[in-house]
Specification:
Largest sheet of chain B: 7 strands, mixed
InterPro entries (chain A): 4Fe4S_Fe-S-bd, 4Fe4S_Fe_S_CS
Radius of gyration of chain B: 18 Å
Keywords (chain A): Iron, Iron-sulfur, Metal-binding
Strand order of the largest sheet of chain B: 10-9-8-7-11-12-15
Number of helices of chain B: 6
Number of domains of chain B: 2
CATH architecture of the largest domain in chain B: 3-Layer(aba) Sandwich
Order of helices and strands of chain B: EEEEEHEHEHEHEEEHEEEEH
Number of helices of chain A: 11
Protein name (chain A): 4Fe-4S ferredoxin-type domain-containing protein
Number of strands of chain B: 15
CATH superfamily of the largest domain in chain B: Nucleotide-binding domain of ferredoxin-NADP reductase (FNR) module
Strand order of the largest sheet of chain A: 2-5-6-7-8-1-9
Helix content of chain B: 10-25%
Distance between the termini of chain B: 35 Å
Helix content of chain A: 25-40%
Largest sheet of chain A: 7 strands, mixed
GO molecular function (chain A): iron-sulfur cluster binding; metal ion binding
Number of domains of chain A: 2
Pfam families (chain A): Fer4_22
Oligomer: heterodimer
């Protein structure tokens, strides 16, 4: 047995949920869902200079993120893991714990990549709801869903795109990227890359940040805010006194790859990339990371034969 | 869920000028003492704390006081940036914030029973100072202990009163790059320093802090002495924003200085591309 919702009823269901949740439709969003839990900029502490009281920001709102595709769901599963281990990130979980993720896909898939519910298109007019967590269970108890006696056919066929295929063997990818440090491709990319950081902002699995204090004009209140940073930006690895561990674009761009495919693999056992394609789409210099990885892999395999 | 970013209040109970741009701050907890771990230590020498002044930011510093001392923590701060210069303007009685300690610290159990060469330069002395205090409190557990401390000029050598005190328990070797007329110590990180060091290289470790003297000491002193790279412990410096392995600023190779370090075996990091 499965639950079915009519396509035209989805918006009514979401409307009903608005009573309880802040509902965000994230379909076709340039910025990935990380922005709701690790916002581009957020106040984390407020220090009152007169009373000398320090308070942290508190977040009460329940959020429902609707329309995540399979890649974004997988990215959220990975980001949850990153934000949980080795130690939990308070400000991320403060928002994430109160949120529900609803996926939406036309593709068939094997094991669910993440989220609380996934809507899978079964025909032009209907979606089948796959409930994955208790949180999902709670919000699906609604007259908009009809029980369907026959389970919709599982027609899962492994139709992986080329980028996905590259990511399958994250061990080889880690070895190849670590090996590639002297490869000419990094010199070529250093000439192309504008060091703008867009690839990291649109990446659902880039999560680096910096912390900055702001003081009110009347000097009464100070806010400590955390904001997205990007390891491709010039100041990222600079320390007091001015020494910079990643002075050149080449070092920074390589570091970005090194983190995603080498350090991430050694830390979590997989690449921190879900082939969503955002970094390719929005790179103003037209860098295509799938092509970069393919070239490195090809040369690596030639050498290691 | 515990908020690991939340700092606690500390009061400056003493400030001391150590050189033209370096000051020591003695910090006391708002209420009560600093808590101790199962080894009776407030922190492991080599660990760092994050000090913050609201309105200016937060930065890591290695405590310089004895790790057994729970009524205060000393931090040594060179005024080189926004936060550190603002801290230099603070006086006794002012309040700031702290969190930590973080990181691993020097491997105290491993270094026990061994001879030890400590190498540091200029402002890298605080974690080494804490380690020396640990050695002094457990003097019979260590063999010969040698401190090689270098600075640009004699005036840049910090904690001169403590260096004197340490001389009773360990051998202190001082070296400067630009000596003045009265200078009687060494000049530069020179091979001759070896003549003053009597250790059993097979049962010796080295602990270093600060990038300045590191490579020179390695090539001219530690390797010639016969101390293997696995037994050389290096404390690294990076700017960190979180201290708990998230923000990515302190990454080097596949390690995070804040979590996996700041103290590394030399051969753990010497092949890192960055």
């Amino acid at each position: 047995m499965s639950l079915i919702i009519e396509k035209k009823q989805i918006k009514n269901w979401l409307k009903e949920l608005k009573k309880e949740f802040q509902v965000i439709d994230t379909r076709n969003s340039i910025l990935p869902a990380k922005q709701y839990f690790l916002p581009p900029k957020e106040d984390i502490f407020i220090f009152n200079k007169k009373t000398k009281r320090l308070t942290n920001s508190s977040y009460q709102r329940k959020t429902l993120i609707f329309g995540l595709d399979l890649n974004d769901l997988e990215a959220m599963t990975q980001l949850d893991e990153i934000m949980k281990n080795p130690q939990p990130d308070f400000f991320y979980w403060q928002k994430r714990e109160k949120s529900v993720l609803v996926g939406l896909t036309e593709e068939s898939f094997g094991p669910a990549p993440g989220g609380d519910i996934i809507f899978k298109k079964i025909n032009p007019y209907q979606y089948q709801a796959m409930i994955l967590t208790e949180k999902g269970e709670e919000i699906i108890n609604s007259p908009f869903f009809k029980k369907n006696k026959t389970r919709a056919n599982e027609d899962f066929k492994d139709k992986l795109g080329s980028f996905r295929k590259i990511l399958l063997d994250s061990e080889v990818l880690a070895d190849a990227v670590a090996w590639s440090i002297g490869h000419k491709i990094w010199d070529e990319l250093a000439k192309k890359c504008l060091s703008c950081g867009i690839c990291t902002y649109v990446c659902p699995l880039c999560y680096c940040f910096s912390v900055e204090d702001k003081v009110n004009l009347d000097n009464a209140k100070c806010v400590r805010c955390r904001q997205w940073d990007a390891c491709t930006l010039p100041h990222f690895a600079r320390i007091a006194g001015g020494h910079n561990f990643h002075k050149t674009i080449k070092e920074r761009y390589y570091n970005w790859f090194y983190h995603k495919f080498v350090r991430a693999y050694r830390e979590y056992g997989r690449s921190q990339c879900v082939a969503c394609g955002r970094c390719q789409r929005y790179c103003p210099a037209g860098i295509d990371i799938e092509k970069v990885l393919s070239e490195i892999l090809e040369d690596y395999k030639k050498v290691k034969k | 869920m515990k908020n690991l970013y939340l700092p606690f209040k500390v009061k400056i109970v003493k400030t001391e000028t150590l050189s033209h741009n370096v000051k020591l701050f003695r910090l006391k907890k708002d209420k009560g003492k600093f808590s101790k771990d199962k080894n009776d230590l407030v922190f492991t020498p080599g660990q760092f704390v994050l000090i913050s002044l609201f309105g200016y930011g937060e930065s890591p510093f290695g405590p310089a006081s004895s790790p057994y001392e729970s009524s205060y923590i000393d931090v040594v701060i060179r005024g080189v940036g926004t936060l550190t210069e603002a801290l230099h303007n603070l006086k006794q009685g002012d309040e700031i914030f702290m969190r930590g300690p973080y990181g691993n610290g020097f491997p105290l159990k491993f270094i026990e029973g061994k001879d030890m060469v400590l190498v540091t330069g200029g402002c890298g002395i605080p974690p080494i100072a804490a380690l020396i205090e640990y050695v002094r409190a457990n003097r019979n557990k260590f063999g010969g202990v040698y401190l090689i401390y270098g600075a640009k000029t004699p005036a840049d050598l910090l904690m001169k009163d403590r260096l004197k005190k340490w001389e009773k328990d360990i051998k202190v070797l001082l070296t400067v790059d630009e000596p003045d007329k009265e200078w009687k110590g060494y000049v530069g990180m020179v091979t001759e320093l070896i003549d003053d060091i009597k250790i059993n290289a097979k049962n010796a470790v080295a602990s270093m802090c600060g990038p300045g003297p590191m490579m020179g000491a390695l090539e001219k002193i530690l390797r010639p002495l016969g101390i293997s790279d696995r037994r050389i412990f290096v404390s690294l410096e990076r700017k960190m924003q979180c201290g708990i392995g998230k923000c990515q600023h302190c990454a080097t190779g596949d390690k995070y200085v804040c979590q996996d370090g700041p103290v590394f075996y030399f051969d753990q990091i010497d092949k890192n591309w960055d």
